[in-house]
Write a structure and sequence with these properties.
The chain has 221 residues and is α/β, with parallel strands linked by helices. The protein folds into two domains: 65 residues; 142 residues, UDP N-Acetylglucosamine Acyltransferase, domain 1, CATH 2.160.10.10. The chain is built from three helices and 21 strands. It has an eight-stranded mixed beta sheet with strand order 3-6-9-12-15-18-20-21, with no helix packed on it. A six-stranded parallel beta sheet has the order 2-5-8-11-14-17, with no helix packed on it. Helix 1 packs across helix 2. The protein is elongated, with a radius of gyration of 32 Å.
């Protein structure tokens, strides 16, 4: 607004006294040049915007022609989830048909599928995948990018689309699983630590620290 008012005054002086009697200071010239430049850019952007909208108009009837094999697009959501008290969820997440206990935490980019159960005070860090039929006890820690598996590929490939072929996993209380670990369908007892990147292929029935591929006990806690 200050620049516009200043230009108006200069123009008025030019009309009153004539252009030959008016000399502009460097600051006045800079102000005029800056406003003129801004105005030109505004006109150019407006013109380019009109080209963007009008160059390739697409109607609803034409979309099927442009994308004849449009995929079925689903959105990550929270649906049919049983939450306990004081649960924290950081979106985006994909949670459906599962149960999450009191004071639990679920980080971003986590998927928890149907019939999975998360105990109270358990923390699920970002990018972890908890598939169907996984039960995690109370006061557990699931690191970043932990993958749970419910299919053993016993027939040389993925099980048919039949939930009866899926195998459950049960994690006890006070279990900590390090980042990028992979947990096959197993049972893990209470007070176990799984190292980062470990692959758990067998049941763990003794408390302790486990690591490696396949995971093996290193020492007691």
């Amino acid at each position: 607004m200050t620049r516009k008012l200043r230009i108006w005054k200069i123009t008025a002086n030019r009309q009153n006294y004539g252009s030959d009697n008016l000399s502009l200071s460097n600051n006045e010239r800079s102000s005029i040049r800056a406003v003129a430049t801004s105005y030109c850019w505004a006109l150019l952007l407006s013109y380019l915007k009109s080209l963007t909208y009008n160059a390739f108009p697409v109607t609803a009837n034409q979309r099927s022609t442009i994308m004849p094999n449009r995929p079925n697009i689903h959105t990550a959501q929270i649906k049919h989830v049983s939450f306990g008290k004081n649960v924290t969820v950081v979106e985006p997440v994909n949670l459906y048909g599962c149960s999450i206990g009191d004071d639990a935490f679920v980080g971003p980019f986590v998927e928890i599928q149907a019939d999975a159960n998360i105990g109270a005070k358990t923390r699920i860090q970002s990018h972890s995948f908890i598939c169907e039929f996984v039960t995690i006890g109370d006061d557990c820690f699931i690191g970043h990018g932990v993958m749970f598996i419910n299919d053993r590929f016993e027939n040389g490939g993925p099980a048919p689309r039949d939930r009866s072929h899926l195998v459950p996993t049960k994690i006890g209380d006070q279990v900590s699983i390090g980042s990028n670990a992979t947990i096959l369908p197993v049972n893990i007892c209470d007070r176990v630590v799984i190292g980062a990147g470990a692959v758990v292929t067998k049941d763990i029935d003794q408390p302790g620290i486990y690591a490696g591929n396949p995971a093996r006990k290193l020492r007691d806690c």
